Automatic annotation (TrEMBL):
<keyword id="KW-0695">RNA-directed DNA polymerase</keyword>
<dbReference type="GO" id="GO:0004519">
    <property type="term" value="F:endonuclease activity"/>
</dbReference>
<keyword id="KW-0548">Nucleotidyltransferase</keyword>
<dbReference type="GO" id="GO:0003964">
    <property type="term" value="F:RNA-directed DNA polymerase activity"/>
</dbReference>
<keyword id="KW-0233">DNA recombination</keyword>
<protein>
    <recommendedName>
        <fullName>Integrase catalytic domain-containing protein</fullName>
    </recommendedName>
</protein>
<dbReference type="InterPro" id="IPR012337">
    <property type="entry name" value="RNaseH-like_sf"/>
</dbReference>
<dbReference type="GO" id="GO:0046872">
    <property type="term" value="F:metal ion binding"/>
</dbReference>
<dbReference type="GO" id="GO:0016787">
    <property type="term" value="F:hydrolase activity"/>
</dbReference>
<dbReference type="InterPro" id="IPR001584">
    <property type="entry name" value="Integrase_cat-core"/>
</dbReference>
<keyword id="KW-0378">Hydrolase</keyword>
<keyword id="KW-0540">Nuclease</keyword>
<keyword id="KW-0815">Transposition</keyword>
<feature type="domain" description="Integrase catalytic">
    <location>
        <begin position="40"/>
        <end position="204"/>
    </location>
</feature>
<keyword id="KW-0694">RNA-binding</keyword>
<keyword id="KW-0808">Transferase</keyword>
<keyword id="KW-0255">Endonuclease</keyword>
Length: 253
């Protein structure tokens, strides 16, 4: 007994202390499990991380999930609203193809959880064809994909603030998420000296086209009648239009 605090315990018992089964099962604690491999990431594309958020309240176009894809080194993040979890594998494949084609960067690893939206024959076939290693995190070990969990929270908070600050319907949340990701990619992350955009694009981003979410705009009405009718319609900015040079506006009925 420590410090001889009590008497009467045979010394043989003190020297024969064994594992206590009831103590082990009742006092068990979860401790982070660190990967023994310790893969070192030194360049963009060394590891791409993907995660799924949701379900969220249905949007006007029935989106309920958000697929977040991120380059581990640069922090560059993409946000893709989904109507169904099963769509994740198709959108993830398309994003990786575009990323490699546009940037010329080879993707070496994909990191996800063990969800069926990521662990399936469709995605495995694509990864094998491109020599991409799929690393799945252990269940309940969310810290293994800690960076994208942090990114999810940052984008979610930005989107929530924009929706609360605006008078727009909450069903427009997919556009708030995408606008938040646009801003996220043009901000410094952690201790980085460059933005995610510049690390990938090799040039600093321009914020000149940035407009506030919900900023009022006047959209020319190409169908206006050539009389005394108004030539413009009032709309509210939802962010940059994907795959085109312009901005999306919501026009209330």
């Amino acid at each position: 007994m420590k410090f001889n605090a009590v008497n009467g315990i045979p010394s043989m018992l003190l020297n024969d202390i064994k594992l206590c089964h009831p103590c082990s099962v009742s006092k068990a604690e979860h401790r982070p499990l660190h990967s023994p491999s310790g893969q070192i990431i030194t360049a963009p594309g060394d590891a791409i991380v993907a995660d799924l958020m949701g379900p969220l309240p249905p949007s006007f176009d029935l989106k309920k999930y958000v697929l977040v894809i991120q380059d581990h080194l640069s922090w560059l993040a993409a946000v893709i609203p989904l109507g169904d979890k099963a769509d994740a594998k198709h959108q993830l494949r398309l994003w990786m193809i575009r990323f490699m084609n546009v940037t010329g960067i080879k993707i070496k690893r994909l990191r996800t959880d063990n969800g069926s939206e990521f662990k399936n024959v469709f995605l495995s076939t694509f990864l094998n064809e491109h020599g991409i290693i799929h690393e799945a995190s252990i269940p309940y070990e969310h810290h293994q994909n800690g960076k994208i969990e942090h990114t999810n929270q940052s984008i979610l908070e930005m989107a929530r603030i924009m929706l609360i600050a605006s008078s727009l319907p909450r069903q427009l949340w997919p556009y708030a998420f995408q606008h938040a990701a646009w801003i996220f990619n043009r901000n410094l992350c952690s201790n980085e000296k460059l933005t995610p955009y510049e690390i990938i694009a090799k040039k600093p981003p321009s914020l000149l086209p940035l407009r506030d979410f919900e900023a009022k705009g006047y959209i020319y009405d190409h169908l206006f009648q050539k009389d005394l009718s108004a030539r413009a319609i009032v709309g509210y900015n939802l962010g940059e239009a994907p795959d085109s040079k312009g901005w999306l506006f919501w026009i209330p009925d």
